[in-house]
Amino acid sequence: MEHMKIPYYPGCTLNTVAKQFDTSAREAASIIGFEMKELSQWNCCGATFPLTPDNVIGLTAPAKVLSSARKEGDTLTTLCSVCYNVLKRTNKVIRDNKEKRNVINGFIEEEYDGSVNILHYLEVLRDKVGFDKVKGAVKRPLKGIKAATYYGCMLLRPFEDIGIDKAESPTIFEDLLRALGAEPVEFANKIECCGAHLAMNNEEVVTNLSGKVMTSAVDAGAELIVTTCPLCQFNLEKSQPRVAESDTGYTPVPVVYFTQALGLALGQDIETLGFEKNSSDIMPLLKKKGIA
Amino acid sequence: MKIRIANDDIQSLEVRRLERVSGEDVKRCYQCGNCSGGCPVSYAMEIPPTKVMRFLQLGNIEDVRKANTMWLCVGCLQCYSRCPQGVSVAAILEGLRQEVLRKGASKTEVRDVPFPFLKKAPQQAIVCGFRKFVG
Question: Considering only residues 92 to 151 of chain A, which have any Cβ-Cβ distance to chain B shorter than 8 Å?
Fold first, then answer.
């Protein structure tokens, strides 16, 4: 593979509270042999795709990101599931709906046609690099770690707009973890919601939903939960102590971004993976498995 | 409970307007219940998704407006993903929220969001929360 440079959109959260998600992904990319080139101009994507077709103004922020990206190439990669969802769906509207395209372009004063191909980092690894090559680059296999790959909603739905993998039984995430040497576990709530933005005003629902995700993972034998979204990560980590309090049979497990697991397996210095920024501690697990 | 079915209600202009805003056709729903089964928050909803659809078919938008349902929908699209008729209850609920927020009312006031949350939460939660709850 020749040296690949892929335009990259970090999004607001990866620039702040999820910095470790961003840095571990960039470092892993450079080990595997591609470069994530941050867009020179970007703004927040709006963090939610407007669900009503009536709400066109909600598409202008992501459209601006897409039109900046087009100036830097024909592909754009992103890590956060929400950014991915919003950008990919907005791009489809602009590409397929001429009337809306004109309204949006008029508003943002650009001529964007929907021709950027939006790839999640997982898709870059699967389709551009290949999981076999990732596997070949593994220096510190996550041997013996039973990992729950938590997809959440935004990485997958709606299926016809996103299409990263099968809607109800995706495997892309498990396939990556398997390449890293871990043992993915099958658990019931892997594509269920964590409670998302209800974190702002309804902690009870978030604890319930995130709790169901974590208990279903741990009941299936998971020793580690891996995420692709800073909001899933936040909701799970924040809910875990409460879940452990109310369910005495529950054993808390570390929750990490998939790029941290990737960096770990690629042999990155553990100190640089930002595990101290997570609120759950992965070190006891790594020591127990003889990995650190 | 007695349900009054009248032509005037079924042809409710307010429901038609909601259909236009949300891009959905409430009559497509045949009440299989998959949406309420798949919805992770239906347990806490005063009117679960399937019933929302039935109420709207009967022109009873008022009860749906009063219920907590629209404010609990997380937009995870499980209802849409599992609907054999391709209906997005999430879009309909967003249409109802939009109606409230566009008039300037809010579900959550910015000053009521606890400061420790604002400090620690991912920006995306705050941006998304503002768009879903603040008018």
Answer: none
The number of domains in chain B is 2
**pLDDT (tens digit per residue) in A130-174:** 999 999 999 999 999 999 999 999 999 999 999 999 999 999 999
Given a contact cutoff of 8 angstroms between Cβ atoms, the answer to whether A280 and A252 are in contact is yes
Mark whether B110 and B98 lie in a shared domain: no
Enumerate the residues of chain B whose CB falls inside 8 A of the CB of residue A192.
40, 76, 78
Angle between helices A81-96 and A60-70 (to 10 degrees): 80
Q: Say if CB A279 and CB A21 are below 8 A apart.
A: no
**Searching chain B, which residue's CA lies closest to the CA of residue A83?**
B124
Do B36 and B94 lie in one domain? The reply is yes
Look up the ipTM and state it: 0.95
**Proportion of chain A above pLDDT 90, given as a percent:** 98
pLDDT digits (tens, 9 = 90+) for A178-231: 999 999 999 999 999 999 999 999 999 999 999 999 999 999 999 999 999 999
Say if residue B89 is in the same domain as residue B46: yes
How far does the CA of residue A110 sit from the closest CA of chain B (Å)?
24
DSSP SS3 for A20: helix
Residue B122 covered by a domain: yes
- Distance, in angstroms, between B10 CA and closest chain A CA? 22
Contact at CB, B75 and A48, closer than 8 angstroms: yes
- Please name each of the domains of chain A with its CATH number: 4-121 (1.20.1050.140), 140-288 (3.40.50.11810)
Is A86 within 8 Å of A43 (Cβ atoms)?
A: no
Matching residue, tokens 């400061």: B115
**Best to test chain A binding among B34, B117, B124 (most A CBs inside 10 Å):** B124
